[in-house]
Amino acid sequence: MNESKPKRESAIIVKNRPLTNGPRTYIVFGVMRGGTTMVAGVMRALGLFLGNNVDENNQEFTEFNSSDLDQKRKIITANNEAHEVWGWKDPNAADYVDRVWPELRNPHFICVFRDSVANGQGLNRWHPFGQIQAMQESLLRQQKNLNLLALRNVPSILISYEKAERHKGLFLEEFSSLLGIAPDHSKFNFEGFMQASSYKRIEDFRL
């Protein structure tokens, strides 16, 4: 496992250096209520294509929400043909990514982690099934994600949501460098968009 040594304030751990040129596909996943929306929104603000008909509340590719694996395969194939670089965001992508693996072109994982207490509280607000049970759900999901990261030896960016939100400037600098795209602060309020709060629309932060 080829990992870089992060700075103390860094939100990122890297497994295998990501490509910054040529065809590649980004899969953004993590846990529900765990910060994947913020990360995907930053990627879209940087200019990356994360699907048609994106839900502006959660940054998810609505056509990809189908549980039909053949439909997912068709969407992946179509986007491989239409876009040299593209991706999608789905917190639960680890449930099915192995089953669409042959269709993926140069897959890159972007996995977002969150403190299990905060994540459990968030899960329980939306799906009230008990505080401890919600924490268990969060930890089980994160372990499943780690298993995927360990088994698939592809370029991967592991992100701490808490550190990214706390050290926004450093996160944006490091993350955009790993993606190979320089942020244009004159056109988008990245730090405002990254501020912890309810869901936000990309268009509201364009300058």
Write structural notes for this entry.
This protein has one domain: P-loop containing nucleotide triphosphate hydrolases (Rossmann fold), CATH 3.40.50. Helix content is 38%, strand content 15%. It is built from seven helices and seven strands, in the order ββαββαββααβααα. The strands form two sheets. A five-stranded mixed β-sheet has the order 1-7-6-2-5, sandwiched between helices. The chain has a two-stranded antiparallel sheet with strand order 3-4. β3 (54-55) and β4 form a beta hairpin. The mean pLDDT is 91. InterPro entries: P-loop_NTPase.
In short:
The chain is an alpha/beta fold. The protein has helices at residues 36-45, 69-82, 116-126, 131-151, 161-166, 168-179, 190-194, and strands at 12-15, 24-29, 54-55, 60-61, 85-89, 107-113, 156-160.
What layout of secondary structure does this protein have?
Elements: E1 12-15, E2 24-29, H1 36-45, E3 54-55, E4 60-61, H2 69-82, E5 85-89, E6 107-113, H3 116-126, H4 131-151, E7 156-160, H5 161-166, H6 168-179, H7 190-194
Parallel strand pairs: 2-5, 2-6, 6-7
Antiparallel strand pairs: 1-7, 3-4
Helix pairs in contact: 3-4
> Widest sheet: strand order?
1-7-6-2-5
- Uncertain parts: none
Q: Just give the CATH class.
A: Alpha Beta
Instruction: Label the overall shape.
Output: globular
**Gap between N and C termini:** 41 Å
By DSSP (H or I, 4+ residues per run), the number of helices equals 7
Mean residue pLDDT: 91
Count of individual beta strands? 7
Q: Please give the domain count.
A: 1
The largest sheet is:
5 strands, mixed
Level of helix content?
25-40%
SS strand fraction: 5-15%
Order of helices and strands: EEHEEHEEHHEHHH
SSE class: alpha/beta
CATH-defined superfamily: P-loop containing nucleotide triphosphate hydrolases
* CATH A-level architecture: 3-Layer(aba) Sandwich
Q: What is the rounded Rg?
A: 16 Å
Query: What name does CATH use for the topology?
Result: Rossmann fold
